[in-house]
Amino acid sequence: GAKRADVSPATKLANEFLGDGNNWRSLPMRLRKLASFVGDESDEAQRLITATVFVRAPESFYDDFEQLFESLLNAHQKKWAVNNAEDSMEVDDTDLLNEDDERLLSEEISLYASLNTLGWIKKKLHRPFRAALNKVTMRVISEIAAHNWEEEGVYHRAMEWKSSVLEPWVTSVVGVSAFAERRYDAQLEYSCSEAFIMVRMGELFELVTEWPESLPAVKELRVALDRTGRLWYQSLAKKWRHSLRARLLHPGAETSQIIDVYINIIKVLREMDPSGELLEVVSQPVREYLKGREDTIRCIVTSLTDEENGGELYEELKRQDAKPLDDAQLLDEEDDETQPSFDWMPPPSILNRRGVISGQIGTITSVSRRSGDTLSMLVGIYGSKDLFVNEYRNMLADKLLNNLDYNTDKEVHNLELLKLRFGDLSLRTAEVMIKDIDESKRIHSNVRSTFQSRYQHNEVDAAIISHIFWPKLSNEEYKYHPSLQEKIDRFSTEFRKLKNPRKLVWMKQLGTVDLEVEAYENDPEGKLVSSIKSVTCSPVHASLLANFEDKSDWTSEELSTQMGMPEEAIRKRMTFWINQRVLKSHQDESGLRYSLVSACEAEPNDGDTYEEDDHQGQISYAGTNHNQDATDAFESYICGMLSNLGSLRLNRIHSMLKSFVAGSDHQYDKTPQQLAIFLQELCKRNVLECSPDGTYSLVKTS
Questions:
Q1: Minimal CB count within 10 Å: which of 251, 418, 620, 633?
Q2: Peptide bond into 501 cis (omega under 30)
Q3: Distance of CA 50 to the CA centre of its chain
Q4: 3-state secondary structure 400-427
Q5: Distance, CA of 286 to CA of 115 (rounded, Å)
Q6: CB–CB of 76/165 below 8 Å?
Q7: How far apart are CA 626 and CA 471, in angstroms?
Q8: CB neighbours of 695 closer than 8 A, spacing ≥ 6?
Q9: Distance (Å, rounded) from C-alpha 470 to C-alpha 235?
Q10: How many CB atoms lie within 10 A of CB 169?
Q11: Are 121 and 174 in contact (CB under 8 A)?
Q12: Contacts (Cβ under 8 Å, ≥6 apart) of 273
């Protein structure tokens, strides 16, 4: 047979090193044996041992060294934690050195000497060494910084730990010359800054919601980003957008809450990146989501004009250094209708601007857009201030018409603040509306003095408006009861004497009437007793009830004829008085009949449930009716253009509506997404049809 070759001492020693077990705790002792042999032999023996060990080593070999380095660094971390307990973190039993830690530290010097003799640190064990270094760094930085937003100096403490623990330990492992040659100081600073950023990336949503308490954390995150060469901005932007979509942009969040978070986003990101590029990228999904909500504009305008609950936006409106809003700064990035001109200039390269986000997400718009204040950013969601001015006029109409004492001081103050931002010309009609109420106060005073000389008291107050300058107000024609009509005619006569030849046209659907009615209510013992109570209702409710002074029993058909209203409208409004236990209803052969409640007929609970009327005297501008009118108008425009032009795509219809509806009584403020939904509704109603290529046309009738 073949003669077996002799095994060299180096190979034999390497096999013994690998055969002594897979316990990483025995590595220091086994490495000493190898190093002692290599120290007495030639370089050839060192290379042979190294090659033999790493060729025959099992898969867990590198994991053992990673565990060894991690345990050593953890032992140094525990020593530092104990010595700096007052300045860093609380120390519990797990932070105290145990027997295994003490043994490792006692073997540490000889271990590094053995590795240096073998030459493994530089050539073979760099990967497990860096893995252990990064793992411990991430854990310690997380303990120092996680959920610690309000305290200042957190990043500085992390850097102190790097200087006190990491740098001395790495120096002892790789040697002084290698530490300087490979610039480990810069590498460790980058690693700690990177770990700090990763900790904060898991808390980005909290940094926004906890503002301004999170200001120290935001400032330190900016420092950490600068230390890493700002290369983390793209990952930061993606993570932030994902967090906002998951935790904020969903139907369960109220629009006012989303707006508050959006305002905080503006402040946080401007603190982090003054260039505004990160703000533009991160806030893009928030702007798009707010633009799709119907009540966004109303919420913004409400906050702007609410001194008590307006919060940030009201304070923003009061800023002394605020600049007027310019439509040129409010153009939305999705508006592709702007025509190019010879004056167009390309924006400066993103490489020349501070705050570069490599591999941009989304579209970066003008510098003026990104550098605007909070209000301009909110208005810029829609690209025009006209929508906000119109919404303010509608809300102002509600407030003025509900202001029964004619006090307009608060509204004048808000209007003057709004004029500084939106311009005098945009709010000229609002100024006329307030003047109408002031003029109504003077007219009311004159009419009251006249009435006092002729009658006991004036029973009618009126807000007299110039309807051309007001939003379209809801109005429903019906006949006042003669007792109400007499009082109104008396007021109209006195007005004609004061303002001849002008005359009043009454908006019968609007206004309130104060009445004293007899109703039956439960006393403390649960018994029904008659009582006189004050009720505020609309004029139509008052007219309905006044008919029962003439006779105590009416059918719905008779009331419809008497009032000049549809029978269905009568039934809806009569539920108000039924729920007040003033009237009762019953069905007979003549139809639905109403009558006054008497003491013998009143019951604690008759088991009937009545749906409350939606028009219990609340003054409102033409909300639903006006929206329906606008919808009908848009449908008419769309059908007209498709009749003349055949089939059109969505973007073409959107562009034409913006042009054609601009000069009409209705404001076209739909986004392309909202228009697409509206067109689909017309398709469901068989008004339009949509072809496979996305074009819309009228349904052909045979």
A1: 251
A2: yes
A3: 60
A4: HHCCCCCCCHHHHHHHHHHHHHHCCCCC
A5: 55
A6: yes
A7: 9
A8: 647, 648, 649
A9: 50
A10: 21
A11: yes
A12: 222, 233, 279, 355
Q: Please tell me the distance from the alpha carbon of residue 224 to that of residue 220, in angstroms, as a whole number.
A: 6
Q: CA angle, corner 155, sides to 154 and 159, nearest 5?
A: 120
DSSP 684: H
Q: What's the pLDDT score for residue 600?
A: 54
Distance from C-alpha of 376 to C-alpha of 383, rounded to nearest angstrom:
10
- In angstroms, the CA 168 to CA 76 distance is 10
Q: Per-residue DSSP letters for 191-238?
A: HHHHHHHHHHHTTHHHHHHTTTTTHHHHHHHHHHHHHTTTTTHHHHHH
User: Where do we find the tokens 């060192």?
Assistant: 46
Packed helices 167-174 and 61-83: angle between N→C axes, nearest 10 degrees: 140
Q: How many CA atoms lie within 13 A of 676 on its CB side?
A: 9
The residues with which 688 forms a beta bridge, in sequence order, are 698
Sign of the CA dihedral running 27, 28, 30, 31:
positive
What pLDDT score was predicted for residue 677? 80
CB atoms within 10 A of CB 322: 16
The model's pTM? 0.69
Residue 92 structure tokens: 């519990």
Token pair listed for 629: 């009118």
- What burial class does residue 158 get, using C-beta atoms within 10 Å of its C-beta: 0-12 exposed, 13-18 middle, 19+ buried? buried
Q: Other CB atoms closer than 10 Å to residue 259's CB: what's the count?
A: 23
Give the distance from CA 75 to its chain's centroid.
46
CA angle 588, 591, 594 (to 5 degrees): 80
Strands (E), 661-701: 688-690, 695-698
Q: Is 90 helix (H, G, I), strand (E, B) or coil?
A: coil
Structure tokens at 592: 């639905």
C-alpha–C-alpha distance, residues 157 and 356, integer Å: 28
What does the alpha-carbon distance between residue 490 and residue 454 come to, in Å, rounded to a whole number? 11
Pairing of strands 695-698, 688-690: antiparallel
pLDDT at 83: 73
Q: Is 62 helix (H, G, I), strand (E, B) or coil?
A: helix
Q: Which residues in the chain show pLDDT less than 50?
A: 1-4, 87-89, 327-328, 331-338, 348-370, 605-610, 614-625, 663
Q: Is the Cα torsion angle 602, 608, 609, 611 positive or negative in sign? A: negative
Report yes or no: 647 and 692 within 8 Å, Cβ to Cβ. Answer: no
3-state secondary structure of 59: coil
Checking 129-136 for CB contacts under 8 A at 24+ apart, the result is 129/65, 129/66, 129/69, 129/173, 131/66, 132/66, 132/67, 132/68, 132/69, 132/70, 132/73, 133/69, 133/73, 133/166, 133/170, 133/191, 134/191, 134/195, 135/70, 136/70, 136/73, 136/74, 136/77
**Structure token digits, residue 303:** 């906050």
Which sign, positive or negative, has the C-alpha torsion 416, 422, 426, 430?
negative
Contact 234, 258 (CB under 8 A): no
Distance CA 448, CA 456 (A): 10
Task: Give the C-alpha distances (Å, rounded to integers) separating 325 from 375, 394, 430, 610, 666.
Answer: 9, 20, 18, 50, 23
Whether 461 and 404 have beta carbons less than 8 Å apart is answered as: yes
Residue among 164, 19, 17, 27 at smallest CA distance from 103: 27
From the number of C-beta atoms within 10 Å of its C-beta (0-12, 13-18, 19+), residue 445 rates as exposed
Residue 476 DSSP label: -
Residues 532 and 516: beta-carbon distance below 8 Å = yes
Q: What is the pLDDT of residue 601?
A: 55
Separation of alpha carbons 248 and 264, rounded Å: 13
Cα separation, 381 vs 367, in Å, equals: 15
